[in-house]
Amino acid sequence: MSSSRTLTLAAFAGAAWLAKRALRRRISRSPLWPLPALETPVSGYSPRRRLRARIVSRTEPAQGVVRLTVESPELPAWTPGAHVDVTLPSGLVRQYSLCGDPSDTGRYTIAIRLVEGGRGGSREAHARLVEGAELELRPPRNRFALEPAPAYVFVAGGIGITPLLPMLRAATAAGADWSLLYGGRSRASMPFLPELAGYGDRVTVVPEDEAGLPDLAGLLSRTAPDALVYCCGPEPLMAAVLAAVPDPGAVRLERFSPSAFSPSASPAEARPFTVDLARSGRTVEVGPGESTLAAVRRVLPDTPYSCEQGFCGTCRQRVLAGGVDHRDELLTDGEREGSMLLCVSRATGDRLLLDL
Asked: Rounded to whole angstroms, how far apart are CA atoms 353 and 32?
């Protein structure tokens, strides 16, 4: 074979390889290509988007609590109440509130309490997330945003103080009237007490081993009519707040675990159904003993999720067709029109069509 023919064949082979690679990339952006890509999923960000950051500081602000500060030029802006999903070295995904300063761009701060008898995420975080380590995050989301109001009552239990810290700074900067009731097992177990001391008598600290349970009824009965109540902490604390406040519609809650009254806590008998995935052209069968999320992740392993219990909203996706048996306690009636949480909700019929 002549050298010129060899060069010609090599050139064709190279061009074919480049064309194949370009086509593969084009299809990955829109699996239904050459049809136009569907609009962005209702979750608001690409499930494949990942952020890389380095842990630049690790401290212990209380017994059993580590505070991690990470830095990266690619970290998006955030607002008080936001949280991030953290991918631990094992691949577990856990959700943590941002407790730093939103104006400190390129830097996030989270705090993690060690939960004995938990699902293992906090133990791994305490053992393996050390200063200098690389950390993978997903972009911030906010289901606990600070709404404008002339007055606020903040109620925190233990590590539930984390999403409220940026809110206190924002409320102070806005000139709003506010107070914080902060309860915990003991002072030694309650993080950020030195920082909160700077707010003076706006903050009431109630360690259970010193003062017993806080007087929620007395506090909330004196709440101004136009005040909003923000609460984060254990489920009994949030239930007590809802029972004590004159207007439950003024309460905003952030949960780390599902409510005892959540439909996902005791799901009804389930039956199998089929899920069609519009973007990827796949079809999966959801068995009676598995979640929609688990079935979808068999074919789309990058589908985002976190709590797997129907309260965080990470796995929310658009429903294009089919009825949904909603078993979450997060979405409003309006939000349930056309979307679902894959981790707990199922089909009312035999088939669902999802924007995936």
From this structure: 15
Q: Which of 46, 52, 88, 87 is nearest to 70 (CA)?
A: 52
Cβ within 8 Å of residue 208, ≥6 positions away: 183, 184, 185, 186
Distance, CA of 27 to CA of 38 (rounded, Å): 13
Q: CA triplet 41, 122, 158: central angle to 5 degrees?
A: 95
Q: Which residues contact 196 (CB under 8 A, 6 or more apart)?
A: 161, 168, 180, 182, 203, 205
String of DSSP letters for 177-241: EEEEEEEES-GGG-TTHHHHHTTGGGEEEEEHHHH-S--HHHHHHT--TTEEEEEES-HHHHHHH
pLDDT digits (tens, 9 = 90+) for 251-306: 999 876 555 444 444 444 578 999 999 999 999 999 988 899 999 999 999 898 87
- What's the burial of 42, exposed, middle or buried (CB within 10 Å: 0-12/13-18/19+)? middle
What would you measure as the largest C-alpha separation in the chain, in angstroms?
95
In residues, how long is the chain?
356
Count CB atoms within 10 A of the CB of residue 221.
Answer: 11
| Cα gap 307→85, rounded to integer Å | 10
This prediction's pTM: 0.71
Contact 197, 180 (CB under 8 A): no
φ, ψ at 7 (rounded to 5°):
-65, -40
What is the strand order of the sheet 151-157 is part of?
203-207, 177-184, 151-157, 227-232, 251-254
